[in-house]
Each structure stands twice: as structure tokens, then as C-alpha cells.
């Protein structure tokens, strides 16, 4: 093995841990104060006071909409919700063995390939594309959930807000207001988180002057992994594995002895707790009460308690959101696509920011392969 002297080993930060790559005005994560700001606003305040549509507008425009701006934005978003026949046909062609993240990734690719303006990276065109994806991702996710259950497609309703319509298209009925609110809160909390792996992927793709759809498709690919968005599904699989609260401690002991990562715990940036968890946990509590599932809350608490006394590693947003989506009625494999529907707002805000002040993202590597050699 050799070491390239042009890049000393001590400069290598595995996983880019702690490396500041660029500026962003979209959001600020401060692990010291355990805070997360979208365009200056604490995410908890946005979740409590704004709809997800307002948050999407804020991420893209930098300011919350006034009444008229919101009305115009809502009218536009509602008019774009219907899926093209081509997108439906392609989804229908995909086998049910395909993971729903693969379906979402493919559907976004089809939307991009069908857009004659796909290559137009002007700010106005990129904003148009962002609103279209924001409007259509719920239709894709809802349709995929339904076809997996052998149910027919439910067309969107333009008299409903984003979250109410999303749930209506999924379940063919309007859930109660508390459920819609809890879901809306989860969308706001998942919307944006600075240079996380999927957002960084989207920015890398944008930096090559590729198109917005390609960058979003790349983001979806990065989000699918269990160390990132895939963790919300994995939490529910863990709950299924454990069964009941009384078995949580023994299960954890066994899992840690096998050196397993406990999904829904730990974070690259937050080491003293994820700032989004208390807000999502409050929504989970409301859902537990609404659906009368104290057993699920007991399991949630038992595993968290066991994890704290054994490893002192705090839960991340995926820990409360997984069981929340389960209570709302989604199949476990649909959880990460729900994350996509939310995060597309943050991804596209970053894509537009990257495009506006671009530099090709191209880091260096330190070679540690065999020394130079020659044939013969
Ligand atoms: N379960 C068990 N041990 C853990 C966990 C966990 N969830 N998280 C961290 N650790 C341990 C590691 O084993 C390591 O221990 P060691 O020093 O004895 O080897 C130490 O804590 C540091 O962990 P790293 O993995 O090096 O920390 P990193 O910052 O790279 O990891 C990550 C962050 C990937 C999120 C990690 O905590 C993890 O794998 N968590 C589970 C997956 C998950 O929930 N991902 C969701 C992220 S948040 C989101 O996408 C909304």
C-alpha cells in the first residue's frame, strides 16, 4: 500500500465529518443550542403556526407568503396535482416487488423525461419544476400505496390543502383534523436539514450543470439508505421484531451484542438530541391518544429508555415519525417516500441556491493502491 504525499492522511475526514463545504441561506443547524432554523425561523414555530405549503414557499422564496401570495401559490399547486397518463402507466408497469422508493425515483425520472423544458435551469423554470414535483409527489406516493393494496387510484381534490389531500388520495376518505395536523407537522419537520447526504447529493449533481430532475432523482437514491431516510421504516421493523414493551431491554442487549446499529437513534450533527424530536413526539402522543394505542407508546418509551441507559444515544426524527406514519395507516415501506414528498422542498431550494452561485463540486482523494507498475 502507498500513500499519496500530495494529500496527507491527516487531512482526510472520513464521511466528510465536520467539513464545511459551502455557505447556505436555506437553513441553519446549531447542535450547540439544539436548534434548526429555516430561513431564520425555528422549525418548531413553523410547525406550530404554518401549513406545509407556507413552509415550502418560505424555503423557495426566503420569506413567508402574504395572504395573496399564499392564495396564488395554493391555486397553482392544486392545479398541478394530477399525474400524467404516462407516469401512471409506468408506475403500473413496475412490479410490486420494487421498493416504493424505486417507484418514486422512477416516477420523478419519467416526469423529467416528459418535460420539454427539463434542461432549462433558469430560476423561473427551476421554481416551476419544484412546484410541479411538490404537487405531484403526494399523488405518486398515494397511488403506489393504493396499488400495493389492490385499490384504485383516487384523484386529487383541489378543495383540500396539501396534507388533507395527500391523506384523502391515500385512504379515499378524509381523516380527522388531528391526523391531518400531525401529518402536516411531520412534513414541515422533514422538509429541510442543511447539507445532509441527500441534499449534498442533489447539490453535487446540480454543480455539474445537470438538470433539476436529475438532482432530485439522485437525492431520492441517497435518501433511500437505512443510515439516512430509510431509518424511519427500519424503526417500525425493529418495533415489529421486539413485539411488546417488556421485551425491549432484552432485545436491545442482544442487538448491541451483535453490533447492530439501532435505527432511529444517533445523528451525525446532533450529539445531544435531534431538535425536531420533541415536536414530532408531541404529534405522536396525539396520534397514540386518537387511535388508542398506548401499547405502541409503551414500546417507544421502553426502547428509548433502554437505549439511554445502555448507550446514551438520543433518538432522531425517524424514531417518532415511523410509528406516527404507522398509526396514520401507511404500510411501513411507504415511510421513506413520505420523507421524499417533504424533503423535495429542501432539495429544490438547495438546487436553486447551488445553481445561482455554482462551482463544480469535485473533491480530491488520497491514493492508497499499489505503487506504479508496468505491463510486461
Ligand atoms: N445504534 C448503535 N450505536 C450507535 C448508533 C445507533 N443508532 N449511532 C451511533 N452509534 C455508535 C457507533 O457504533 C459508534 O460507536 P463506536 O465509537 O463504539 O464505534 C458511535 O456511536 C459513533 O457513531 P458513528 O456511526 O461513527 O456516528 P456517525 O455520526 O457516523 O453516525 C448515524 C450517524 C449514521 C446517523 C448513526 O447514528 C446511525 O447509524 N444511526 C442509525 C440510523 C439512523 O437512525 N439514521 C437516521 C439519521 S437522521 C435522518 O435521516 C432524519
TrEMBL record:
GO molecular function: citrate synthase activity
Catalytic activities: oxaloacetate + acetyl-CoA + H2O = citrate + CoA + H(+)
Keyword tags: Acyltransferase, Transferase, Tricarboxylic acid cycle
SUPFAM superfamilies given in the database record: Citrate synthase
GO cellular component terms listed in the entry, alphabetical order: cytosol
Signal peptide: none
A UniProt-annotated Pfam family: Citrate_synt
Active-site residues per Swiss-Prot or TrEMBL entry: 267, 318
Pathway annotation: Carbohydrate metabolism; tricarboxylic acid cycle
Family annotation (PROSITE patterns): CITRATE_SYNTHASE (PS00480)
GO biological process: carbohydrate metabolic process; tricarboxylic acid cycle
Family note: Belongs to the citrate synthase family.
Protein name: Citrate synthase
Organism in which the protein naturally occurs: Naasia lichenicola
Amino acid at each position: 500500500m502507498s500513500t499519496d504525499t500530495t494529500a496527507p492522511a491527516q487531512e482526510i475526514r472520513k464521511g466528510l465529518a465536520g467539513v464545511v463545504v459551502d455557505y447556505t441561506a436555506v437553513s441553519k443547524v446549531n447542535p450547540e443550542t439544539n436548534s434548526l432554523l429555516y430561513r431564520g425561523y425555528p422549525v418548531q414555530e413553523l410547525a406550530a403556526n404554518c401549513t406545509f405549503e407556507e413552509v415550502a414557499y418560505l424555503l423557495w422564496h426566503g420569506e413567508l407568503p402574504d395572504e395573496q401570495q399564499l392564495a396564488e401559490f395554493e391555486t397553482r399547486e392544486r392545479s398541478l396535482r394530477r399525474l400524467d397518463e404516462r407516469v401512471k402507466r409506468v408506475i403500473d408497469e413496475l412490479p410490486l416487488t420494487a421498493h416504493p422508493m424505486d417507484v418514486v425515483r422512477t416516477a420523478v425520472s419519467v416526469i423529467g423525461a416528459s418535460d420539454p423544458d427539463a434542461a432549462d435551469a433558469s430560476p423561473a423554470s427551476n421554481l416551476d419544476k419544484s412546484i410541479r414535483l411538490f404537487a405531484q409527489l403526494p399523488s405518486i406516493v398515494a397511488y403506489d400505496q393504493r396499488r400495493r393494496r389492490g385499490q384504485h387510484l383516487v384523484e386529487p381534490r383541489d378543495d383540500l390543502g396539501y396534507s388533507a389531500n395527500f391523506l384523502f388520495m391515500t385512504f379515499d376518505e378524509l381523516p380527522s383534523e388531528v391526523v391531518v395536523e400531525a401529518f402536516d407537522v411531520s412534513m414541515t419537520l422533514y422538509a429541510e436539514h442543511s447539507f445532509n447526504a441527500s441534499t449534498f447529493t442533489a447539490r453535487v449533481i446540480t454543480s455539474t450543470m445537470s438538470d433539476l430532475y436529475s438532482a432530485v432523482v439522485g437525492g431520492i437514491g441517497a435518501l433511500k439508505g437505512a443510515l439516512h431516510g430509510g431509518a424511519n421504516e427500519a424503526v417500525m421493523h425493529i418495533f415489529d421484531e421486539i413485539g411488546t414493551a417488556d421485551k425491549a431491554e432484552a432485545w436491545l442487549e442482544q442487538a448491541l451484542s451483535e453490533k447492530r446499529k439501532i435505527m432511529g437513534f444517533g445523528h451525525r450533527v446532533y450529539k445531544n438530541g435531534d431538535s425536531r424530536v420533541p415536536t414530532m413526539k408531541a404529534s405522536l402522543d396525539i396520534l397514540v391518544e386518537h387511535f388508542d394505542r398506548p401499547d405502541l407508546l409503551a414500546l417507544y418509551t421502553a426502547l428509548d429508555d433502554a437505549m439511554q441507559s445502555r448507550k446514551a444515544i438520543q433518538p432522531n426524527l425517524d424514531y417518532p415519525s415511523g410509528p406516527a406514519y404507522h398509526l396514520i395507516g401507511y404500510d411501513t415501506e411507504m415511510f421513506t417516500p413520505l420523507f421524499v414528498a417533504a424533503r423535495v422542498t429542501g432539495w429544490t431550494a438547495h438546487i436553486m441556491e447551488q445553481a445561482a452561485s455554482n462551482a463544480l463540486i469535485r473533491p480530491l482523494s488520497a491514493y492508497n493502491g499499489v505503487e506504479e507498475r508496468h505491463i510486461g
